[in-house]
């Protein structure tokens, strides 16, 4: 085991926290001072070989998904390994030497967990129905385990950090409707309507006539059921439609929540053109979406993991670039609100709820998918907390002569 000890100390000896590693034969190593925050159990030396050669956090994550690595203890702290592995530098000589050591490892006592079938992201990225189905058509019952009572899959709006997710999502739905200054019998288009919560809320509470579009069959079916259960058939409609095929219409207000992250940067002109065509001159458009902290799209280990296992085709831009694109398509920006703390709070509640229903989630979608979503949402929470990703609501007006029909202050939003 001196060989393994040498490898592990080279890989983890400089880790700034405390952790424990348990090998496939039961041998244990500890790094750092004090009680280990978490334990990694390696069930096959292949994991060590991958770490020596590439130190790629995505490969370590995939080993966790497949059951070749187990994580116990502080799962959030374990995700801190990403920064350590990416900053660790090994010379070519170090790599060759360590790899030769890994080849000598005795694997006679190792065992494999049977690989589960790995969902494959669409081979040809189209930013369309196939990509959306990969993410959203996992299982409505799975999402229902950890989303709020209205199945809102975007950040809540918290009045206090202690507020529960159900109230925070009600706050968010109402906040959006207030920003749009919805009035009875106005028409509202929701581009990427999800499971229908916003269109139903806007119709039931504000009396508008709302239409939503989605590319997810599961979301469409659920939204149709909710419209029927809430008795909103005369005020709310939903259809399966790609935003790129929206006909020119003249809605009073247009909204899109958590949609443009799926679009891809090359398609943002098409996306904003669809929103512009859909809203009347002088009408309001609210875009609620995630942003990145660096201009241009430069995929890192986090985005590679998300594109491969969670969100095919997802790409982000800075909020300043998004606003420039909106202005280039004829929108005038009237209000911008950053919601980064709200999404961190939302994700923490989602993860807590998912972990509380782990057994049910695994029964519904399998161990691998449960692990993917647990890691994905925990990692995203850390990204928002660290400021590497943000989220903004941008309220804009389709330009026309004169002033828009908006109050001079924001006071009406909070009265």
Structural account:
The chain is of the alpha/beta class and about 425 residues long. Helices cover about 45% and strands about 20% of the residues. The chain has 18 helices and eleven strands. The protein has a seven-stranded mixed sheet with strand order 7-6-5-8-9-11-10, with helices on both faces. Strands 2-1-3-4 form a four-stranded mixed sheet. Helix 11 (about 215-230) links the parallel strand 6 and strand 7.
Please, what is the average pLDDT? 88
The helix/strand class is alpha/beta
Distance between the termini: 68 Å
Strand content: 15-25%
Radius of gyration from CA coordinates = 24 Å
Portion of residues within helices: 40-55%
Identify the overall geometry: elongated
- DSSP summary, beta strand count: 11
Strand order of the largest sheet: 7-6-5-8-9-11-10
Strand and helix order: HEEEHHEHHHHHHEHEHEEHEHHEHHHEH
Number of helices: 18
Major sheet details:
7 strands, mixed
Low-pLDDT windows of residues: 107-125
Which characteristics define this entry?
alpha/beta; seven-stranded mixed beta sheet; 415 residues; single chain
Helix and strand arrangement:
Elements: H1 2-12, E1 19-22, E2 28-31, E3 38-42, H2 46-53, H3 57-65, E4 69-73, H4 75-78, H5 81-87, H6 92-103, H7 129-136, H8 140-146, H9 165-179, E5 187-191, H10 197-206, E6 209-214, H11 217-229, E7 236-240, E8 251-257, H12 268-278, E9 279-292, H13 301-309, H14 319-328, E10 331-338, H15 340-356, H16 358-365, H17 367-386, E11 389-398, H18 411-414
Parallel strand pairs: 1-3, 5-6, 5-8, 6-7, 8-9
Antiparallel strand pairs: 1-2, 3-4, 9-11, 10-11
Helix pairs in contact: 2-6, 3-17, 15-17, 16-17
């Amino acid at each position: 085991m001196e060989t393994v000890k040498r490898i592990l100390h080279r890989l983890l000896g400089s880790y700034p926290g405390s952790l424990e590693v348990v090998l496939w034969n039961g041998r244990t190593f500890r790094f750092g001072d004090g009680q280990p925050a978490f334990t990694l159990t390696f069930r096959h030396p292949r994991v060590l070989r991958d770490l020596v050669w590439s130190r790629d956090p995505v490969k370590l994550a995939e080993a966790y998904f497949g059951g070749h690595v187990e994580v116990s203890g502080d799962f959030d702290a374990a995700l801190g390994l990403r920064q350590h592995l990416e900053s660790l530098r090994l010379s070519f000589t170090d790599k060759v030497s360590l790899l030769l050591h890994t080849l000598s490892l005795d694997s006679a006592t190792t065992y494999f967990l049977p690989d589960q079938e790995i969902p494959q992201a669409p081979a040809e990225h189209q930013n369309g129905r196939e990509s959306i189905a990969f993410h959203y058509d996992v299982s409505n019952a799975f999402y229902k385990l950890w989303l709020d009572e209205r199945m809102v899959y975007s950040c809540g709006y918290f009045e206090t950090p202690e507020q529960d997710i159900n109230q925070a999502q009600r706050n968010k739905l109402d906040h959006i409707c207030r920003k749009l200054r919805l009035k009875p019998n106005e028409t509202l288009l929701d581009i990427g309507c999800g499971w229908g919560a916003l269109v139903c809320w806007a119709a039931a509470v504000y009396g508008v006539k709302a239409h939503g579009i989605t590319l997810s069959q599961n979301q469409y079916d659920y939204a149709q059921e909710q419209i029927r259960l809430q008795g909103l058939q005369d005020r709310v409609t939903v259809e399966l439609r790609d935003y790129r095929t929206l006909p020119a219409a003249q809605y009073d207000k247009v909204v899109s929540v958590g949609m443009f992250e799926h679009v891809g940067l090359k398609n943002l002109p098409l996306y904003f053109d669809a929103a512009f065509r859909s809203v009347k001159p002088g009408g309001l458009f609210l875009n609620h979406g995630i942003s990145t902290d660096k201009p241009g799209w430069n995929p890192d280990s986090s985005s590679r993991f998300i594109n491969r296992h969670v969100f095919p085709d997802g790409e982000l831009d800075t909020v300043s670039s998004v606003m420039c694109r909106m202005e280039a398509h004829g929108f005038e920006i009237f209000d911008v609100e950053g919601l980064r703390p709200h999404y961190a709070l939302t994700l923490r509640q989602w993860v807590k709820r998912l972990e509380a229903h782990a057994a049910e989630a695994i029964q519904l979608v399998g161990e691998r998918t449960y692990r993917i979503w647990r890691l994905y949402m925990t990692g995203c929470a850390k990204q928002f907390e660290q400021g590497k990703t943000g989220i903004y609501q941008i309220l804009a007006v389709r330009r026309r002569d004169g002033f828009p029909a908006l109050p001079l202050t924001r006071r009406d939003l909070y009265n």
